[in-house]
Design goal:
globular, 18 helices, 576 residues, 8-stranded mixed β-sheet
């Protein structure tokens, strides 16, 4: 790898390298649900297929020490905590996660930072060229399989000296490409909920069974204490059947807010009450790994004092001060992240990639806490239910979910929690993902969504409803401004009409465009995340001129979170 690592490259070259990777990856994508379902095989088949690729690559994974994490919600955050904790103890960490927010190399982290583009490119094409040239292979891996192989190729590289490989599953667990290790050091399963039901099943026990596929005989296993009873029962049953260490999956209650040892608040780098549960699970995983690591290195402490960390006895195998710092310093972009709004002094974007009913509820709870804290800073105790700008905190929402998801289900959770605190949205915007043009397909009509969720029907779209700010939609002779056809952005329009319906249920009216009057929420759909960030800044400027500010929740999809982070100029920390 040294030849790649020593090559000096410019930003333009990095962009070219990434483009070369994307061009290859696009050939591996399963583009339909049918293709995904056809890819489902038995675990034996999955393992055999991956072993064929690993053999072709001549990868020796026998020395790789693995922590394997599955779950519906919080598995990325949990992995981030684990990585930060172990790196803080001096270990050289590798983390494989998905999806990426901005660039594909983010999926592979080394030492807490995205893999350098030149290093990623090197391992990517070592895998690509070797597999393409192999006469023993009948086909190339699928998209996620391939990226898993790239990660393993990097983690197994002796020049990178990875002490621990933290692997986050993609979808499910039993049939996941990462599920090829019979003896990981430890496994963890985060909160289970309803997601990817077209592949994993439509019931909680079916989904839990898929996630529990990562549990292994003789390997310790942990999960969070707040699992739904049916999911917890299923995990417990499968843990017994698979004879995990102790024949039971161990549960981790949330960390206490006050550290019993120091009597001071236990600070976490990730915001949101739910992160105390993720951090607790991460501590259990990291503690088990450190115990194993120190034992192998004959460095296990003798008669060392056990400290309580947030109510958990996890101090013996850690440098306790480093452990507290690692918890405080953990970062995971796109999850409960506050970012300054470009060009504004006080206004902020509150970004969370929540994309399920439950995760949107948690994102909204976090957002409400941010709003309440900001009101105190502004000295404005009034509810933001008018467009009065003098020292008033304006509230915005940027929302987009993937076609096929239920936007009403998620938006209802957001509005219930904001309305409970008398927080009203001054504006709500929607835009397509940056790799999409305006969506012209809509599986659910506004009427069907309203009937399903018992919402009032909003008024019909005004005749001049169209794209604000130009963009990539098809031009034509429609009645919308700038000549855009009427069916452009139909999914965004459906989402915003759903917002209108939910607002009406809570007694608040909406208006399309920029001219919303007092006590009215302005609705807009825009051609891109960049145009959306600019529109949020424009709406915020009038608040700031009067000494106020805005807070805008960005949620509904990790793809949206990444697009907005990119549009707002966010950059991941450079690897050192």
């Amino acid at each position: 790898m040294s030849d790649a690592a020593n090559t000096g490259i410019s930003g333009d070259n990095e962009g070219k390298m990434l483009d070369e990777c994307y061009e290859c990856l696009n050939k591996l994508m399963s583009k339909t649900t049918q293709q995904l379902q056809e890819a489902v095989m038995t675990r034996d088949q999955i393992v055999k297929e991956m072993e064929t690729y690993i053999s072709a690559l001549e990868l020796d994974l026998s020395k790789l020490s693995v922590i394997h994490v599955a779950g519906t919600k919080g598995k990325g955050s949990t992995c981030a905590f684990v990585e930060s904790i172990l790196r803080g103890q001096g270990l050289k960490t590798g983390l494989f996660s998905s999806p990426h927010l901005i660039h594909i190399n983010e999926r592979i982290q080394l030492g807490g930072s995205p893999c350098l583009v030149k290093v990623f490119h090197y391992h990517f094409f070592k895998v690509w060229n070797t597999l393409r040239a192999s006469k023993a292979l009948k086909k190339m891996p699928r998209y996620f399989q391939f990226l898993t192989l790239v990660a393993l190729h990097a983690f197994a590289d002796p020049d990178l000296h990875v002490d621990v490989a933290i692997l986050e599953t993609g979808v499910g667990g039993r049939l996941d490409a990462t599920n090829i290790f019979e003896k990981p050091v430890v496994t963890g399963i985060t909160k289970i909920g309803y997601d990817h039901m077209n592949v994993l099943g439509s019931t909680l026990d079916a989904i839990a069974s898929e996630k529990a596929g990562i549990l292994k005989s003789g390997v310790p296993a942990y999960t969070c204490a707040s699992q739904e009873p049916l999911a917890a029962k299923t995990l417990s049953k499968i843990a017994g059947e698979k004879k995990v260490l102790g024949s039971a999956i161990m549960t981790c209650p949330p960390l206490e807010k006050i550290d019993p040892l120091t009597k001071c608040p236990l600070e976490l780098g990730l915001a949101g009450e739910h992160q105390r549960e993720n951090a607790s699970l991460a501590l259990a995983l990291a503690n088990t790994f450190m115990k194993n690591w120190l034992k192998k290195a004959s460095l296990a402490p003798k008669d060392a004092k056990e400290y309580k960390i947030g109510g958990r006895d996890y101090g013996r195998h850690f440098d306790i001060d480093r452990l507290r710092k690692s918890l405080k310093d953990t970062r995971w972009p796109g999850r409960c992240q506050i970012l300054a709004l470009p060009g504004m002094k006080r206004s902020k974007l509150c970004i969370d990639g929540a994309h399920t009913k439950d995760s949107c509820a948690r994102a909204a709870e976090w957002f409400v806490s941010v709003v309440e804290a900001e009101k105190e800073l502004l000295g404005d105790d009034r509810a933001s239910n008018t467009n009065e700008k003098h020292k008033t905190l304006g509230i915005g929402l940027v929302y987009m979910c993937g076609v096929g998801r239920d936007p009403a289900e998620q938006l209802i959770q957001i509005f219930q929690r904001t309305q409970a605190m008398n927080i009203q949205f001054n504006f709500v915007y929607s835009c397509p993902f940056d790799w999409d043009k305006y969506t012209t397909k809509c599986p659910d009509t506004v009427r069907s969504l309203c009937e399903k969720h018992k919402l009032p029907m909003p008024p019909p779209l005004p005749a001049n409803t169209g794209v604000e700010g130009g963009g990539s939609a098809s031009k034509g002779g429609g009645s919308g401004p700038q000549g855009y056809v009427d069916n452009s952005g139909i999914w965004q329009k459906t989402i915003l009409q759903t917002v209108h319906a939910i607002s009406l249920k809570h007694g608040r009216n909406c208006a399309w465009g920029s001219d919303a009057k007092a006590n009215t929420t302005a609705l807009k759909y825009l051609p891109s995340s960049r145009a959306t960030v600019e529109a949020v800044a424009e709406a915020s400027s009038s608040f700031e001129k009067e000494g106020g500010a805005t807070l805008t929740l960005v949620t509904g999809s990790l793809y949206l979170a990444g697009n907005v982070l990119n549009a707002a100029g966010f950059e991941f920390g450079a690897q050192t």
